[in-house]
Structure formats: C-alpha cells, structure tokens
Specification:
Elements (H helix, E strand, L loop, with lengths): L5 H15 L1 H36 L18
Length: 75
C-alpha cells in the first residue's frame, strides 16, 4: 500500500462532491473559515487583555498603616 497518487485524490473529491453537493461543501468551508477567524480573534483579544494586568501587578503599594490593637472591655 503506497501513497495515493493525484488520480486517487481526484476520484475521492468527485465522489465527495456527488454525495454532499457543492453548495453544502461551500457552506461547510465558509463555516469552518469563520470559526477559525473567530478563534484567532479571540486569542488576539485575550493576549491584549492580559498585558495591561501584568503591568499593574508590578506596582507595589508603599504606604503602611499603623494599627494598635486594643483589648475589648465588657460593659
């Protein structure tokens, strides 16, 4: 069993086109392309959302609060 030649792939594509029809195959291709574009956009948006948080986390609060504990007195 060697690799398939170009003629084998053409026969497979013709059979798939006959079974599903070209319109349905075109719709599947458009849906798949839209899903990939949406995924890439979501990944890009997630990366841009994370960058400002990383910058703000590096800032440290240098102020201190001096608190003195007092004992509770029963009335």
């Amino acid at each position: 069993m060697g690799s398939f030649s170009i003629w084998h792939w053409l026969v497979v594509l013709v059979i798939i086109a006959l079974v599903f029809g070209t319109k349905k195959l075109r719709n599947v291709g458009e849906d798949l392309g839209g899903a990939i574009k949406g995924f890439k956009k979501g990944m890009k948006d997630a990366q841009t959302d994370e960058q400002p948080e990383a910058v703000t986390q590096k800032v440290q609060d240098t102020t201190t609060i001096d608190v003195q504990a007092k004992e509770k007195q029963d009335s």
